[in-house]
Amino acid sequence: MLFNDLAFLFLFLPLTVVAIHLVFPGRFRMPLLIGVSLMFYGLSGLVHMAVLVGCVIWVFLIVDRFSLGAGDARTLWLAILGPLGALVYFKYSNFLINDILMLDGADGPQGFDLFRNIVLPAGISFFTFQLFGYAIDRYRGDIAEPIGFTKLFFFVSFFPQLVAGPIVRYQQVAEGLRNLSRFRLNAKAVSEAMIYLVAGLAFKVVIADSINHLSAPLVEAPKSLGATGLSALVYSYTFQIYFDFYGYSLCAIGLGRLFGIRLPDNFLRPYATLNPRDFWRCWHVSLSNFIRDYMYIPLGGNERYIRNIFIVFVACGLWHGAGLSFIIWGVFHFALVGGYKFLERQWNCMPAALQWALNFSLVSFGWLFFVYPIGDLLAAFTSVVDVDNGWVPSVDLLVMTCVAALICFFVRIEALVSAIPDLGRPQVCGLAVFSALLAVLVLLFIDRSATFIYFRF
Questions:
Q1: What are the tens digits of pLDDT across the range 263-275?
Q2: Which range of residues forms the domain containing residue 16?
Q3: Are 168 and 192 in a shared domain?
Q4: What is the pTM of this model?
Q5: Which of 47, 130, 348, 422 is the most exposed place for a label (fewest CB within 10 A)?
């Protein structure tokens, strides 16, 4: 099920809110929300739901039942092995066998092959990482006592952030879980939730999906793009992926507020940063923090800076997808961050506007690895030289890209929500009317909306 689905918005979500807050006593909220989350996820396939349930049970039995204590490394690795095995099988086995080892099914195209036609469970990269984080935090002693099976299952399966994050650490939501049975839905929580949800859907449905629709002719013709078409594709996709993922994160945060769970911000105006290092402090913050805390620092942090950032950026690329293009994307960002480290003094001496323009253009260029496989990407680059008159982007695409840029750089939903208590009655009424009009606009466009980009990760 998707947030940009009418069945979710007008059936699943209202029934869930009514059941949680009006029908059942508070002590049933956690198991009820677990059941609702399994229903939400199970619509993608019962096998995928079984993978989720199996991974949670595995980690619970090993970490909590076997009493993983601080410093118990062998039990930690055993706990990680289960979800890691599921992640490798479903996400990377085809890549490893077909692209790395170059082995095909021995039984021919009609024969049985355990590694053929594997369907990736939605959000497996997200919920496995949360399980890794829980096991490591128990190992480190950051979570001193077992939290119990029900809380662990809720922590991993909570439907707003289950399939595309943010990647949450238990400590970030522990208070919300403790107070779940006592949480009372009030006007403040509802207003915050609706602003997050409506804004997130508008960013996804109206902006990201419109750009996706308008740029489709460019994406489908890499050999005939030319310099103009390639430039238009680079910058339009830059805003498409931002508003697609940022929109999902806002929806997740808003839905969490309806149940008293405060999910962390995942985007901190990344395209406004002045250098590659700061970009990664502001883009997909939950993933950046996870990699920093659970990979970069244990590897030695700044002591072997170049080696360590190479490892983490290759891992980051592989996290996003099983393919050579994602690995190259990771290496590309390693080169940006590593290059900035060596040229930091010279870079910082440039005017701020030039720093921003260079950083934004380099980051935007890197998104091409998400658009095309390597062969098509090389064809797109070659078209700059070989094609005299490439694609000329439509006026609609240029206008939508400019609108997206203005919203990206001048609108911050989190700041707006924080300012609500200080607004006067006329401003609050105006905000409510604007949100209602925006919701209508979303409904007008929602029938052509596509799946969130990060669902495939």
A1: 999 999 999 999 9
A2: 6-184
A3: no
A4: 0.92
A5: 422
